């Protein structure tokens, strides 16, 4: 993809204000409108390349009247395609109409937009760094995360980390701790998923005669509370009291849930939410930052001391292209487990798709559908080559399996020259090429 022609409209990651009547805004972070901000002042709000639209984008892959944003009866934002040439896609799937959840990625040709429901900051500030501790990324979304993490490291305020499972919340919390003035103190983890009762939570927090509680263990350092939404309701006021009184502890909490929504709906203690949400950082899902995949592969392989063969595999363009098409439901954790699995087994899979999906037929069907998603947001030649490579890899995997890895027999069965088959096997890093 030509990065110079990629226009990305992204919303800043901020604490939910909980207010009503606020106008959602669009902030352009790259392309000809970089740095400009647009408020959705009326509905329908039209987007396209034509000058009469509410948001006019100078992008040749965007139709003159491409799509519009409206409000449905419940007050939710809805995006409607207006018969555009290249279509409107959400997470790679073309739609004619769809409700927009906060931070849902929408693609219009080469333009991507993220439309949140609420925002409070006028700018999307980005760090100049591409690495914050062990957290790595060069996409605008991650550099904004690093900017917020830098601010969090420089103060003593509580931090609330939000994001899907596997996006690296605990790792970022430890990175913030290691760059803060408390870095010489302990970093203690409390996992609320393990609580079985209020008594259990109270014992872990405050301890007993025979057990030291995490509040005492974290003195002088940082207490990271994972899955804060799973903390028993009766224990939430106790934690709030500790946050208000224990100035010797830095509190960082994390959740996969929309904590502002839980607090609003009475499913989480609102005063505790407000006490935690002084600095809010949302970690994007890996499917929203696929340009970081090559960087993440190399970093994970290095940290796991992967073999030279695996490191070389991580650098192959065809492998990277395939992994970019995968949806990564397990996010970075899933990528790490992929490298760990190859390292422990001492081999590279003939078909990385099956290696990722496992034996579940439903997962295989879903991954195959994701792998062959076709969208006109990229040059024809590039996408065609990637799909051909995907086909070749799948065909070779099945061919070799049917012929017990015998090269000569496989070549005869496929009706191709042995030397050509060997070149393909080497190209895709498959075993037994000799």
Could you explain how this protein is built, in words?
By secondary structure, the chain is α/β, with parallel strands linked by helices. The protein has 16 helices and 19 strands. The protein has helices at 140-153, 169-178, 198-206, 214-217, 236-245, 259-264, 270-276, 293-303, 308-315, 317-325, 331-345, 352-357, 361-371, 380-402, 407-414, 418-427; strands at residues 7-9, 25-27, 37-39, 45-48, 55-56, 67-71, 77-81, 88-90, 93-95, 97-99, 105-108, 111-114, 131-132, 135-136, 159-162, 187-191, 222-226, 250-255, 279-282. The strands form 5 sheets. It has a 5-stranded mixed sheet, with no helix packed on it. It has a 5-stranded mixed sheet with strand order 5-4-6-7-10, with no helix packed on it. A 5-stranded parallel sheet has the order 16-17-18-15-19. Helix 5 links the parallel strand 17 and strand 18 (250-255). The longest helix is centred in the last third of the chain and has 23 residues, at 380-402. Mean pLDDT is 81; it is low at 1-20, 117-123 and 359-371.
